[in-house]
Structure prediction request, 87 residues.
Amino acid sequence: MMFKRIVALLAVILFVGLAITTLVIAIFFTDENNSGYFYASLYSMIFIPVLAWAMIYIHGVLNKATDYEIKANSVSDADTEESKSEK
Prediction:
């Protein structure tokens, strides 16, 4: 539980840092030659949270499937043990 809180806090710090970096770059790097920094920072502000959400979502989907398979296997194993003991 504590690990999840630490990771969540680090994610918030990362996102706030990205937002501040994007703001600073937008203010101070106004040259046309330096516009790539702004676009890279803006892209990372959008892409990193979306990628993190996708990874968490896929982990949840795969973890539920694994839990279901484990429960299904344990139920079928219990059924076969009961049928063996009835014979």
